[in-house]
Amino acid sequence: MSRVCELTGKKAMVGNNVSHAMNKTKRKFNANLIKKRFYIPEQNEWVTLKVSTSALKTINKIGIAAAIKEAKSKGFLK
């Protein structure tokens, strides 16, 4: 699987390693992703999602059902 958050669409960014001599080489900043199971009481089922930690904070704030609904409206979930 790719390193993309399933709720927010966050993915790796590209930047530079900068040495003391100011030499620049390309590097990746990966998204902080975790694989987590969520229980959706409306559907009475468990769902496993790969989410970023910032999305996890959003889920704790607004709830998993609202977060999934928002992700579907933005086109991140099917």
UniProtKB/TrEMBL annotation:
Q: One GO CC term of this entry?
A: ribonucleoprotein complex
SUPFAM superfamilies reported in the protein's UniProt record = L28p-like (SSF143800)
Please give the Gene Ontology molecular function terms for this protein. Answer: structural constituent of ribosome
List, in alphabetical order, the GO biological process terms annotated in this UniProt record.
translation
Q: Name one Pfam family in it.
A: Ribosomal_L28
Keyword terms of this UniProt record: Ribonucleoprotein, Ribosomal protein
Extract the InterPro entries matched here: Bacterial_rp_bL28, Ribosomal_bL28, Ribosomal_bL28/bL31-like_sf, Ribosomal_bL28_bact-type, Ribosomal_bL28_sf
What protein family is recorded? Belongs to the bacterial ribosomal protein bL28 family.
Q: What is this protein called?
A: Large ribosomal subunit protein bL28
- Organism, as annotated: Psychroserpens burtonensis
State the organism's lineage: Bacteria, Pseudomonadati, Bacteroidota, Flavobacteriia, Flavobacteriales
The gene coding this protein: rpmB
